Every structure is written in C-alpha cells, then in structure tokens.
Amino acid sequence: MSNAVPSGLSPAQIKTNVLSGLTVALAMVPETIAFAFVAHVSPLTGLYAAVIVSFITSAFGGRPGMISGAAGSLAVVMTALVVQHGVEYLFATVVLMGVLQVLFAVARMGKYIRMVPYPVMLGFVNGLAMVIFFAQFNHFKVAADDGSLQWMSGPLLYTMLGLVGLTMAVIYLLPRVTRVVPSALVAIVMVSAAVAVMGLETRTVGDLGSIAGGLPSFHVPQVPFNLETMKIIFPYSLILAAIGLIETLLTLNLIDEMTNTRGQPNRESMAQGAANVATGFFSGMGGCAMIGQSMINMNAGGLHRLSGIAMSAFLLSFILFASHWIEMIPLAALIGVIFVMAIKTFEWGSFRLFGKIPVPDIFVGILVAIITLISDLAIAVLVGVIVSALVFAWEHAKEIAATTYIDEAGRKVYRLKGSVFFASIANFQALFTPQEDPVQVVVDFKQAKVVDHSALAAIDALAERYAQQGKQLSLKHLSPDCRALLGRARDLVEVNLLEDPTYPVADDKLG
C-alpha cells in the first residue's frame, strides 16, 4: 500500500495537520532542552537538531506523520563523548553517524526490521512509554541552596500537580465535546491562561533555559581531520547510527500498525541519514524518530508530511520570534500532555495476553521493557531478538521425529521429519537404538533437512555407533552439500539424482 501524501489536502486536513504540528512543537521544547542537558550541550544545539531532522525526515522520509528530533536514547550515548572531547567532536560524530545510516539505506537493509518479533516490539513500546513517563518526574525537582536537586514541596508542588491534572482532564474530556482542534493544544492554552490570570507561581519552560536564537548557520566541525579523530568518533557514530535506526524503524512499524498502512524503511533510513549529516554541519546534536512526539501527532490527527514540516516551522519560529512567549508556558501543561501520550502509548492490552500466549513470549516482552527502562534501547532490542531466536531454536529442536518400519528387504527404515541442527542434535541421537536394530538400517532424510555442520557431525557420530555394533547403515535423500561435507558417513549415502534435495548447508568449508 502506498504511503505517499496525496497531491492535494483538503482545508480540514491542512488545518488538522498544522495544528497537530503546533501541538507537537510545544511538547518538543522541554523534551529537547532536557535531552540537550543530558548530552551536556546548549538548548539551541538540541532545538536546531529537532528543526532540521524533523523537516528533512518529514519531507523526504518513508513514514508520513512520524516525528523525529533530538532523542533521549541518543543523548545518553553522547554524554561521554562531549565530556571527554568537547562539542565539536559531537558534531563530527553526528555527520559520520548520518553517513553510516545512508550506507545502511543504500544496502537496503531496512527490511530486516520486519524480523523483530512481536513480543520484542511490545516490550519496546512499553519500555519507552515508561521511560518517557518517569523522565517527567525530573521536572518536579528544584535546586537547593547547596546546588543539589530536591523534590518540590508545599504550594509549589501542589500547584504543579493541580495544573498537570487540569491539563490531563482537558485532553481526555474535550474530545467528547468537540474535535475541531487538538485537545492537547487547547489544554496548553487553557492552563497557560489560567496561570497568567491567577498569577500562580509555577515552573515554566524558561526555567529550563533560554530558547532565543537565530537561524542555524553552516559550521564545519572544528576537529583534526586525521586517523586519530576517526578512532575517537567512529565507535560513537556506529552506536548512535544503530540506536537511531532501531528506534526509528520500530516506531515506523508501530505507526504502520496504528494506521494500517505500510511505511518505507529504506527511504526513512536514507532521509534520517541525510538529516543527521545536515544537522552535524549546522551545530545540531542529531536525532531519530521520537515515539512520544509521534504518538502526540497521531492522536491529534497529524497523518501527513505537513504535520512534521509544520512542527519544524513552528519550532524554528519559537527560536526566532516567540521565545519570550514560549518560555512563559507552564511546564505542568507540557508534562500533562506527555503523561497522556505515555499512557496512551503503553500497550495496556498486553496484560490481557497473560495465559493466552506462550510463556516465553511474555518473558521476552517483559525483559525488553525492563532493559529499555534501566539500560539502553539498542541493547534491549538485541537481547530480545537473541532470546526470541534461542526460544525458537529450542522449540523447533523438539519437532524432530521419526517413523520406523521394516521394508521389503528386511531393513529397518527411520523416516525422519523436521530439521537437524545444533539445537536438535540430542533429540536426533535419541531417536536411534543401534543395539536393538537389525543388521541393516536405513535413515531416510526425504522429509528432514540438515541445516548446519553440527548436524553433519551428529550423522557421522551415528554412523560410528552402528559401525561399532557391526551393523550396516545407509543414508538416503541427502543434498549434495551434505554428501560433500560428511566425514565417516560419506560412503554410506545412497545417491538418487532425481529425488535427492538440493538445499545448502551452513558451513564455512563451502566458502
């Protein structure tokens, strides 16, 4: 199914996507500033990245409606680089990160994200929803006299909680009355107006740092262009490229499911790579898809490219012209928006799966969510895929079986069914009883497949077991690869060129 934006949007669609872009831009400001602080760079470094990355990926990427920007999963990796080598090395790293992502797209590897199992996807979504939710609690801390951060208390805390509650109530209740404008945008405006009219004392966006600035200017990273610099930045670039692509392509998959459309992973990877190359040359910290902002956009009706482009335009206008007004927005209003987004992002239906799906799938989903919450997204997905693969191998290993009968020549025939590979070898060996079998035995592989070298070694070992008993073993219906790679059992194979299969075997010797 094509996901291209229609050549002409109706006035209602234009209004919906523009207002959705405005809502996302407002929610993007505190998140981006917070991530910039995590990476030890200025707020403008994060905001410029959000403007450039979102614009390029929205205009040219493969998933309309998905929002990209400076993400927290990338910021935590950048911290050590900036602290040790400075922000100029970060800009060079982001450029190289983008180049690696472009190469990934040129190699057309985006399709492999479809191999991520559903339990891993579920854990990814739930883990990120919890990360986003709990990250907002940092805004409930204030600086003490000694410079340390302490939790709010007294009227300041109660005011903050009350405004967050009001924001969430408006977002949930307004759609029951009207859907003319995004409820999140109305909530931000209402809470900001209430704070201004009532003169309430509460934290605002300006308390995080100024967002005033000019247009981003072209800037070549001021680092030595030599091998030593490459040794410093390449490991970070590789990790950032991998994390960015994983988060982006998993978010793309999620939006595909929500909208019943099909995104283009390679096109999105190419756009993200180009965006990161550009933002690295314009003093930005790089970025990737942001599941939180993408969900805000989806919930507000921003399904087309226009919503992401509008978000970038609004965010840039905040920096250039409206920084004073944006800095007056209560943090509580934006926290309430993000709380609702995190709650809606979390797959609450996953709790209903308990007892209805295999226990290993539940374990993988919980494992990925926990690792995402306490460690790193890329590690969580990698662990989830590995565990899922091991579970699959274990379950598939149990499917090896054999039926036996005595043929017209008086030979006992084992007709195998299933796959013989490293995980099923023990079960394969247990199928045979050399001591009890007659003098002549046939193993028929017509309905079985020999997968790897471990299976070949097991066949050789089986031949040795029968030879020790002084019995004759014959092997039928093995592929040419199997016959070429067998050792002791090679001479036991009955060749039938018309019936023998031609599947390959995973073995380095064939190289």
Automatic annotation (TrEMBL):
Its main location: membrane. It holds the Pfam family Sulfate_transp. It is a multi-pass membrane protein. Keywords: Membrane, Transmembrane, Transmembrane helix. It comes from the Bacteria. It is found in: Membrane. The chain crosses the membrane at residues 33-53, 65-83, 89-106, 118-136, 156-174, 181-200, 233-255, 275-296, 302-321, 328-346, 366-394. Residues 413-511 form the STAS domain. Gene3D superfamilies: STAS domain. InterPro entries: Membrane-Transporter-like, SLC26A/SulP_dom, STAS_dom, STAS_dom_sf. GO terms for cellular component: membrane. This is Sulphate transporter.
